């Protein structure tokens, strides 16, 4: 710890770390499910099902079996798969409705501390996204939620999905800093573990409501991270002294 | 004109359009030249010589003869070439001094109307960079000059230098808009002509002081652009009604 490099930039995971994807997706899925008279499908469970479906799709790209496609495309495919899982034919919807629902991922609300925390952290360090979300998604989300990013980096810019090591290293390179001078801020131990293995510093933000109060699927991957906080405002307290 | 697509985003050329490269480079070169007792070299002419030298270097990359390298690297090479042209051995300097001088391109001041203009335009449209400058350069410049970009796009993100058509089209694609829904804002007719040929809308900003009051090298490439303004605040007047 005594020999930790000075931090020169902060890179943020976004879904779950900065914004509450589960509530946002449930909010926007609810009226669609209601119109279909599908009160048997809980909108939060629908959100969980959607989120769960995109990891295998990401893995197809990470493995090289599929050429890079943006997350908006994977979200759309996962949505259609999820609808079929619930015996709903995606063809029942017009294209505009499917696009609008897919773009629910653009309309996620920040956690209560995110905007203030990022705004304060930005006064000390460049703050950039290091998300698997694509540029148009991150930009629309940031404009709606007032997230003051200095730059939108991440999968579409590096051409590599997390948690491949190159996703973290390419981000450091684009910022013209060493991996050890870049700190990943994330609510997910698996993401932080991969970032650490790639040479980055790590800041864990606890988001106990990400899964509606249930434990995170990667809870067992916890390590002793360089920083561990309960909010982005607390991270600003620690880093911007 | 009646059938113009609605604009969905604004992409900005930066050097000369948003910031005053000539004054900034001259300001930072002056003390270096003074330390060398080279009062025979006018700092503004030094800036012109530096700027002029990077176009052939860009052409090497655009032509495919050289793999993509970021503008910081080309600026450094052009600086060493310029110093030698003035019979100054770059080896006379320590590395830190050469890096600091190369990074004068990160420390350019905005034109008087740029920050207010961009801030107002951002309330109506996403505002992104479409510059040949690399991400680290654009980010450092934006933080210093308070340029409120929604995203830093351009050469390093698309992997293509302007004015190749793909540089404009890739930017539209990353924003998930059609080329005709993206408007390039630039002080350079050559840039706007290439953007128009790629299908973008075009907004010309007159920057009569870019070359210290002398005519721009591409003055003869003027066309009847979709918008033509004297400042970014005037562009906000026209676009944000």
Can you walk me through this structure?
Two copies of one chain form a homodimer. The first copy, chain A, has 241 residues and is of the alpha/beta class. Chain A has two domains: 9-20 and 109-239, 3-Layer(aba) Sandwich (Rossmann fold); 21-106, Orthogonal Bundle (DNA polymerase, domain 1). Chain A contains ten helices and six strands; from the N terminus they run βαααααβαβααβαββα. Chain A has a six-stranded parallel beta sheet, sandwiched between helices. In chain A, β4, α9 (189-197) and β5 form a beta-alpha-beta unit. In chain A, α1 (21-35) crosses α2 and α2 crosses α3. The longest helix of chain A has 20 residues, at 43-62. The first copy, chain A, is globular, with a radius of gyration of 18 Å. The mean pLDDT of chain A is 96. At the A-B interface, α6 and β3 of A face α6 and β3 of B.
Which helices and strands appear, and what pairs or packs with what?
The structure is a homodimer of 241-residue chains.
Chain A: E1 9-12, H1 21-35, H2 43-62, H3 71-85, H4 95-102, H5 114-122, E2 127-131, H6 135-145, E3 151-154, H7 155-158, H8 165-174, E4 182-186, H9 189-197, E5 201-205, E6 227-229, H10 232-239
Parallel strand pairs in A: 1-2, 1-4, 2-3, 4-5, 5-6
- Can you count the helices of chain A? 10
Shape descriptor of chain A:
globular
Taking all Cα atoms into account, the compactness measure Rg of chain A is 18 Å
Strand ordering within the main sheet of chain A? 3-2-1-4-5-6
Distance between the termini of chain A: 18 Å
Q: How many domains comprise the coordinates of chain A? A: 2
Largest pleated sheet of chain A: 6 strands, parallel
CATH architecture of the largest domain in chain A: 3-Layer(aba) Sandwich
Strand-pairing-aware structural class of chain A: alpha/beta
């Amino acid at each position: 710890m005594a020999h930790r490099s000075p931090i020169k930039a902060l890179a943020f995971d976004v879904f779950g770390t900065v914004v509450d994807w589960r509530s946002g997706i449930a909010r926007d899925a609810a009226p669609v499910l209601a119109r279909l008279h599908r009160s048997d499908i809980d909108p939060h469970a629908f959100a969980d099902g959607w989120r769960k479906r995109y990891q295998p799709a990401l893995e197809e790209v990470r493995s090289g079996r599929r050429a890079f496609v943006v997350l908006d495309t994977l979200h759309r495919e996962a949505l259609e798969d999820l609808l079929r899982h619930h015996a709903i034919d995606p063809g029942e919807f017009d294209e505009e409705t499917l696009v609008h629902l897919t773009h629910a991922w653009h309309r996620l609300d920040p956690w209560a501390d995110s905007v203030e925390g990022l705004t304060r952290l930005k006064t000390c360090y460049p703050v950039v996204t290091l998300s698997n979300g694509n540029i148009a998604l991150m930009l629309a989300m940031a404009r709606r939620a007032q997230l003051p990013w200095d730059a939108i980096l991440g999968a579409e810019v590096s051409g590599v999905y997390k948690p491949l090591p190159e996703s973290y290293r390419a981000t450091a390179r684009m910022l013209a800093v060493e991996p050890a001078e870049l700190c990943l801020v994330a609510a997910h131990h698996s993401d932080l573990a991969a970032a650490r293995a790639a040479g980055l510093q790590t800041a864990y933000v606890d988001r106990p409501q990400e899964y509606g109060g249930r434990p995170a699927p990667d809870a067992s991957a916890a390590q002793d991270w360089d920083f561990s906080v309960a909010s982005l405002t607390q991270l600003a307290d620690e880093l911007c002294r």
